[in-house]
TrEMBL record:
Functional pathway: One-carbon metabolism; tetrahydrofolate interconversion
Positions that bind NADP(+): G170, R171, S172
Residue ranges of domain Tetrahydrofolate dehydrogenase/cyclohydrolase NAD(P)-binding in the record: 144-281
Function summary: Catalyzes the oxidation of 5,10-methylenetetrahydrofolate to 5,10-methenyltetrahydrofolate and then the hydrolysis of 5,10-methenyltetrahydrofolate to 10-formyltetrahydrofolate.
Entry annotated with the keyword Amino-acid biosynthesis: yes
Assembly description: Homodimer.
Catalytic activity: (6R)-5,10-methenyltetrahydrofolate + H2O = (6R)-10-formyltetrahydrofolate + H(+); (6R)-5,10-methylene-5,6,7,8-tetrahydrofolate + NADP(+) = (6R)-5,10-methenyltetrahydrofolate + NADPH
Keywords: Amino-acid biosynthesis, Histidine biosynthesis, Hydrolase, Methionine biosynthesis, Multifunctional enzyme, NADP, One-carbon metabolism, Oxidoreductase, Purine biosynthesis
Protein name (Swiss-Prot/TrEMBL): Bifunctional protein FolD
Domain Tetrahydrofolate dehydrogenase/cyclohydrolase catalytic: 10-125
Gene: folD
Pfam families: THF_DHG_CYH (PF00763), THF_DHG_CYH_C (PF02882)
């Protein structure tokens, strides 16, 4: 733990390292038993620089833990039908254990249709409706990686959500919505906030746990934070800036994640872990 202002810094890098160390051991066990490495297919449509960077980072992490990375780059002109066909082929390929469609995709593509082409057993990024429903009902499906990574950070720093008021700022289907469901499953009282929420600062001031997932730099101000609250910043904006005004919030929070080095590393670590889980499940 590191003190920053009055808050203790929650290192996602440290949490992620523990996850990836275990994942590397399990990947090696899989390779020993089967003669091949677990395989993650990454699909990137277009040439968005940020997306290219994210995919490159994920492929590098795959190599470090003993996961094979099958990268499929597609031109920005790719149609929804072409993308769905490709993902369906990957879903039917027994050599592929997990599928990651880097998002966002170009605006002309129906992203939801593309996500739904991923076989549930290979949805290691937790983006399909099947995975969301399974997670919401406490099933064994794969969780959305960023919310799952946030839960791992809370566990690593002994933050029990039970009975606490958690405010999730953002309602995207792969971050905000599943984040609230995971907290609800751990007996938190959850409030979702979004662009139509009235008097957002007042609501945030009542939160014991704040998850910021809006994609707007330094949107959550320090004065919104209840003294001693746990603040998890799931935003990543240009210039390595999160969705929380970090310096302001750190003065009031009890625990806080940095950007970078907070939520991001755990997201990738959970992706790798779930890829190896998928490989073992498909072999069973």
């Amino acid at each position: 733990m590191t003190d920053t202002g009055n808050a203790v810094l929650m290192s996602g890098t440290d949490v992620a390292r523990a996850i990836t160390d275990r994942t590397a051991q399990r990947a090696a066990q899989f390779a020993e038993k089967t003669g091949r490495k677990p395989c993650l297919a990454t699909v990137l449509v277009g040439d968005d620089p940020a997306s290219e960077t994210y995919v490159r980072m994920k492929r590098n992490r795959c190599a470090k833990v003993g996961i094979e990375s099958k990268h499929v780059p597609l031109p920005a002109s790719t149609t929804t039908a072409q993308l769905v066909e490709l993902i369906t082929d990957l879903s039917n390929d027994p050599a592929v254990n997990g599928i990651l469609l880097q998002h966002p995709v170009p605006a002309h593509i129906d992203e939801r249709a593309a996500f739904e082409a991923i076989a549930p057993g290979k949805d290691v990024d937790g983006v399909t409706m099947h995975s969301f429903a399974d997670m919401a009902f406490g099933g064994k499906g794969f969780a959305s990686c960023t919310p799952a990574g946030i839960m791992r950070i809370l566990d690593a720093y002994d933050v029990d959500p039970r009975g606490k008021h958690a405010v999730v700022i953002g309602r995207s289907p792969i971050l905000g919505k599943p984040m609230g469901m995971l907290l609800l499953a751990r007996d938190a009282t959850v409030t979702y906030c979004h662009s139509k929420t009235q008097d957002l600062p007042s609501i945030v001031r009542t939160a014991d746990i704040v998850v910021a997932a809006v994609g707007r730099p330094e949107f959550v101000r320090g004065e919104w934070i209840k003294p001693g609250a746990v603040v998890l910043d799931a935003g990543y904006n240009e210039g390595n800036v999160g969705d929380v005004a970090f310096d302001e919030a750190a003065v009031r929070a009890g625990l806080i994640t940095p950007v970078p080095g907070g939520v991001g590393p755990t997201t990738i670590a959970v992706l790798l872990e779930q890829t190896v889980d998928a490989a073992f499940e498909q072999r069973a």
